[in-house]
Amino acid sequence: GTPQKYDPTFKGPIYDRGCTDIICCVLLVVAIVGYVVVGVVAWTHGDPRKVIHPTDSRGQFCGQQGTPNEWGECLVPSPAAPPCPSPIQICVSKCPERYMTYLNAYRTPGELGYYRNFCVPEYNPGKTAIEVLKDKECPAMLIPSTPLARRCFPAIQAKKGVIMVGNETTYDDGRGHRRNVTELLEGAKKANVVLETRQLAMKIFEDYTVSWYWIIIGLVIAMVASLVFIVLLRFLAGIMVWVMIVMVILVLGYGIFHCYMEYAKLKGEAGSDVSLTDLGFQTDLRVYLHLRQTWLAFMIILCVVELVIILLLIFLRKRILIAIALIKEASRAVGHVMSSLLFPLCTFFLLCLCIAYWASTAVFLSTSNEAVYKVFNESACPFSGQTCRPETFNTSNVTKLCPDAQCLFAFYGGETAYHKYLIVLQFFNVFMFFWLANFVIALGQVTLAGAFASYYWAFKKPDDMPAFPLFSAFGRALRYHTGSLAFGSLVLAIVQVIRVTLEYLDHRLKAAENKFAKFLLSCLKCCFWCLEKFIKFLNRNAYIMIAIYGTNFCTSARNAFFLLMRNIIRVAVLDKVTDFLFFLGKLLIVGSVGILAFFFFTHRIKLVQDTAPPLNYYWVPILTVIVGSYLIAHGFFSVYGMCVDTLFLCFLEDLERNDGSAEKPYFMSPNLRKLLKKTNKGQPDA
């Protein structure tokens, strides 16, 4: 690309700018309106109760207020039947408490009154036992059960290693045979997992109730530590970088020394002089450590790496110094725009709104199917499998032609156009989530870039900065560049949706034996992963150029890309130096706060030993503090990283636009001018 030319009117982010990428802006507005319509339609047809509450054979909810069975639990009718929904589902007021079969209840006076509590409302006690079981009006047997999530599951318990249900080890299966209760174990295994999970969740909730304020204190400590670290980078960035470089050189030097000592120690030992080619491939890798040639190869590799690093340091020392100076300058910029440290909260809030809308719409779409009833019968019937309506079924011709036919709930579905295109609406919901989430992130990046660019292009810092640089940048981004942000986030969203689709296909093809399909899918996943990373990098720098110059997305992306390519070595050095410092900062903050939380919650700090609350699981608040500290540190360093990237692009533009003369003075800080041996004529460099 062509280097930037001097523009006497350019004094930082352009205020007199126009709207960019209007078509994309209109497209985003139309898509949002469509997304709202989809949400309204989903909320109109959907019913999240289907996710929580089971249904009986008629599709009516069990245990839901305002329904005929608002008092009920869903009864699992037999040990062979899966949890609801199953071919027969019955809502009962109370789960059964003892073993009983219908045949025994039918023969025993007084027992039938208890058993009928677990039969359908149309149960006719005048029928024979065989007819009742054939018409599926009552379950063949009852098992002692416990309610869980509005469903009755066998009450399995272990006493001294013996599996029992209702204090019994065997049960009557309703066919005159005794069976071992272990046969019920597999069917109720998932229920027990859910029960244990619920108990675990209750204990974790108890831990949170007694430790929440200490967790907040830990997160405040992490916030203060992050802020202090950013301030200290102004003074310690150079020291930390050079200490890291020296440590790497020393570690490699020790590695070379260790390899030489091992090489010398093996001299004269039997079998140590066998070559690697003669030994061949061995599954036990420890065999290679007994060969002198192995340690010689390690020593040569480490020597080459050491030499390459030393040569890079010799030739790139000035660029490393520039990267350190930019990091120090970023610390000053953040200090002058302190409100930028709170801006990630706005981005986080908007992202939470996107996630909440996407999740609720997905739930309502997935539960917007209607109850479909089918004709079930034992004998041959021309209406078998056809849809029916329970309200009019008994008066229809079906019961006349097929006396044993029943109209039972089959599944949730629908045959309208809306139900046929539910999968399309779900896909649109996922796509819009990615688009809006990327748009929110882009809005945050453009706002921060505009604020920090105002700092760099202020000739007298901070006197020439606008009064509220962050709010000014936010207003410019929304007013003029919504279309450009929509364009960049749309491109990224398309790639991410393709990646999600590939992951779904890979999940579905796991059991397939087609090696070529798996290989092709893996290649596509790798390519689109690389493409997503590249687009994120390009978008980030394009947003910086948009914030400064107010150009459209394509022009900004092209200018940013060519500007970076003209300074590719500086880009690589700055990227690695900042990555190291951010990694070190996150590790230091999260590690320090995590260790402090561990010693506090495990009562190992004598000064506050009695203050720490008693806990069921001490790892609950510790993990919460660690995860929260990482998110806080990541939020602070994301602002800092955006500041470094913005100042870096401004620095490269400054070098191309200006020459230090009175007409074209440099805007960079005196430290950077001193490093580059640049001066502004007539301006002191102090």
What this model shows, in words?
With 686 residues, the chain is α+β, with helices and mostly antiparallel strands. Among the domains are: 73-181, no CATH class; 372-413, no CATH class. Helix content is 61%, strand content 7%. The strands form five sheets. The protein has a four-stranded mixed sheet with strand order 2-1-6-5, with helices on one face. α15 (482-508) runs antiparallel to α16 (515-549).
Main β-sheet description: 4 strands, mixed
Structural class: alpha+beta
Radius of gyration: 35 Å
Number of helices: 20
Shape summary: extended
In the predicted model, the low-confidence regions spanning at least 5 consecutive residues are: 76-87
How much of the sequence lies in strands comes to 5-15%
Kindly report how far apart the N and C termini lie.
35 Å
Tally of extended strands? 12
Helix content: 55-70%
pLDDT averaged residue by residue:
81
- Strand adjacency order, main sheet: 2-1-6-5
Organism: Serilophus lunatus
Transmembrane segments: 21-43, 212-232, 239-257, 295-316, 337-359, 432-457, 478-498, 542-565, 577-601, 617-637
Catalytic activity: choline(out) + n H(+)(in) = choline(in) + n H(+)(out); ethanolamine(out) + n H(+)(in) = ethanolamine(in) + n H(+)(out)
Function: Choline transporter.
